[in-house]
TrEMBL record:
Keyword Kinase: no
Superkingdom, taxonomy of origin: Bacteria
Entry-linked Gene3D superfamilies: Aspartate Aminotransferase, domain 1, Type I PLP-dependent aspartate aminotransferase-like (Major domain)
CDD domains: SufS_like (cd06453)
Cofactor: pyridoxal 5'-phosphate
Family indicated by similarity: Belongs to the class-V pyridoxal-phosphate-dependent aminotransferase family. Csd subfamily.
Organism: Dactylosporangium roseum
Protein name in UniProt: cysteine desulfurase
EC number: 2.8.1.7
Chain ranges of the Aminotransferase class V domain: 26-403
InterPro entries per UniProt: Aminotrans_V_dom (IPR000192), Cys_dSase_SufS (IPR010970), PyrdxlP-dep_Trfase (IPR015424), PyrdxlP-dep_Trfase_major (IPR015421), PyrdxlP-dep_Trfase_small (IPR015422)
Protein keywords: Pyridoxal phosphate, Transferase
Amino acid sequence: MNALDVESIRKDFPILDRQINGNPLVYLDSGNTSQKPRQVIDAVREHYERHNANVARSVHTLGTESTEAFEGAREKVAAFVGAPAAAEIVFTKNSTEAINLVAHAFTPASDDPRFRLGPGDEIVVTEMEHHSNIVPWQLLAQRTGATLKWFGMTDEGRLDLSRIDELITERTKLVSFVHYSNILGTINPVGVLVAKARQVGALVLLDGSQSVPHLPVDVAALGADFVAFTGHKMLGPTGIGALWGRFELLDAMPPFLGGGSMIETVSMTGTTFMPPPARFEAGTPPIAQAVGLGAAVDYLTAVGMPAIEAYEKTVTAYALDALRSVPGVRVIGPESTVDRGATISFTVEGVHPHDVGQILDDEGVQVRVGHHCARPTCVRFGVPATTRASFYLYTTTDEIDALVRGVERVRKVFA
């Protein structure tokens, strides 16, 4: 597809034909999880119907077919994010597991100075992170005695870089931050943070959970050392995610979990381990889910990530203007589409977000309410929670209009 034909795209998503409470389904919660096209659903079903077997364990036909499909999906994912080699893609169950896998590599006793972490060393994150990119580093700091530091935010929902020289120093061992905020929609200045980290010899992990599904992402060009992302936000199944890492770093990291498939030789006195990515994929992996993720990558590639990004920018601009027209609505985060993704969090004056969400659901409009696993961001902006509308390649301006009508009804109900 050379241009984004949204009406044709929507026909590929069976769930979009549903009705909710007698109203057409308006799905505006893709930042939480995306819907799945028939092509992905069919790929998973066909795998189970025709090729189901375990991988890397058998020489029979089904085992070979399953292994080829699983490793083929890895190659597709690697190409999709610009990884230099498929061996740099580790399949995980989600971004959370991918981030924890990296955190597990840091210990005070590491033989590799890049992963040696203890008292006096520092980890740097930001105030806008998803809990999955805060809690693992808090736990790591507790285990090792390292110090956790963070960037604050401006009133517009951008990172406050005024203290970058104080926060990223010679003591910094890792800088871990979100590429595209799941609550604010902010797209962060990766180049600035990576360049500063490089000056002090720190490693960089990028949370790409929202960016990989919505933007053209080239991990080599971004310059980070690790990028975590997840399949269910990019049209793929749940239960499958990925960690991209520079091979020389993955090769220096210890196993995350022990068991079958990640070993070379096991004896009662010791074990040797496979090279990456197998070293980090103990046990039976999510095979059908990986096949589904490969089909999702095929779909997104056919549509074209630049076209998706451009279309979503148009939809987001339309939504920002429409929401601003409703009295009492406050957008939390950037007010323009500059360095901003297709996610808008907002509040309605005098109305709790849970009540907003309930009334919108009555209208068939599906949004997320709460702190979106980003409570520090809510605290920063002085709100208990927000209502969040998040868009994707199948979102239409008619659906934005339905959202706005629903918000206007909220105001009338709670007047």
